[in-house]
């Protein structure tokens, strides 16, 4: 039976569309995550970024890979239902942690999060991949937007740098340009969400987010996990996150000392 927070229909929706809404996934951990985000913003990590040009209003902060130095993030990863829910949605008996990601848009931040797929930035390939995006403030207009079914596209979308707006890798026939889902009439899923709700989506789902024109901030905590079929893959340039010195080779499982196993339903079987 699936975890009580989800249904068999949610599992089927995730497989078909690559995106599904999970109400209340982090509902019991909102204050802990808010404290973690506050600590993160006060003490940014080496990958922290400000994603606005000087002439743009508001503030768009993001940072990732901080779960092992920010106690609140580690606590939620260990004590929430996220690994169980991920296993059910991915249909994987094993769940590993890839990384966390914090995204904060202060009031009046008109800049949207650019459309992108996560997978091309990562050195992870597999069908069993999942990201969770959870707002820590009520969201209506500044919510996540996902293109249903885009995880099944024959080619990935070329990743870009959010601030510089340049291509992440050299142009190649292996990638398609970033599309405009609104102009092209794609099936965009977006949800009005309460703190602790979460959108679950596949690494290859095209997604973005609107700017925050409200008078309240929009804090979001994102978590990236993967399952037992995931393997290391080489990309045509440095990945994001880069994880320098990992020493993995193409086709290998990702090392468990850097990417810990959160759940293993095969253990003791």
Major sheet size, sense and barrel closure: 8 strands, antiparallel
Number of strands: 14
Low-confidence stretches: none
* Share in β-strands: 15-25%
Total helix count?
A: 4
Question: How confident is the prediction overall: mean pLDDT?
Answer: 95
Shape descriptor reads: globular
Q: Please write the string of helix (H) and strand (E) elements.
A: HEHEEHHEEEEEEEEEEE
- The whole-angstrom Rg is 17 Å
The helix content, as a percent range, equals: 10-25%
Which structural class do you get from the secondary structure elements? alpha+beta
**Cα distance, first to last residue?**
18 Å
Oligomer: single chain
Describe the overall structure.
- The protein is built from 4 helices and 14 strands.
- With 269 residues, it is α+β, with helices and mostly antiparallel strands.
- Strands 1, 2, 3, 4, 7, 10, 12 and 14 form an 8-stranded antiparallel beta sheet that branches. A 4-stranded antiparallel beta sheet has the order 5-11-8-9, with no helix packed on it.
- The longest helix has 13 residues, at 30-42.
């Amino acid at each position: 039976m699936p975890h009580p927070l989800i249904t068999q229909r949610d599992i089927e929706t995730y497989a078909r569309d690559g995106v599904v809404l999970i109400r209340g996934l982090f509902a019991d951990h909102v204050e802990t995550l808010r404290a973690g985000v506050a600590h993160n913003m006060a003490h940014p990590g080496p990958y922290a970024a400000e994603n606005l040009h000087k002439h743009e209003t508001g503030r768009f902060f993001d940072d990732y890979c901080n779960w092992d130095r920010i106690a609140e993030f580690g606590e939620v990863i260990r004590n929430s239902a996220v690994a169980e829910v991920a296993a059910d949605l991915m249909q994987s008996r094993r769940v590993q942690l890839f990384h966390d990601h914090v995204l904060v848009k202060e009031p009046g931040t008109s800049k949207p999060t650019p459309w992108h797929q996560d997978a091309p930035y990562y050195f992870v390939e597999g069908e069993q991949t999942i990201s969770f995006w959870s707002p820590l403030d009520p969201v209506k207009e500044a919510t996540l937007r996902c293109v249903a079914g885009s995880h099944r596209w024959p080619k990935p979308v070329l990743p870009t740098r959010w601030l510089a707006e340049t291509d992440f890798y050299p142009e190649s026939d292996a990638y398609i340009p970033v599309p405009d889902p609104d102009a092209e009439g794609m099936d965009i899923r977006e949800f009005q969400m309460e703190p602790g709700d979460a959108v679950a989506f596949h690494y290859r789902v095209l997604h973005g987010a609107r700017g925050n024109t409200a008078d309240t901030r929009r804090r979001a905590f994102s978590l990236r996990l993967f399952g037992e079929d995931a393997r290391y893959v080489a990309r045509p340039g440095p990945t994001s996150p880069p994880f320098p010195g990992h020493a993995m080779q193409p086709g290998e499982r990702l090392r468990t000392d850097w990417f810990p196993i959160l759940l293993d339903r095969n253990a003791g079987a």
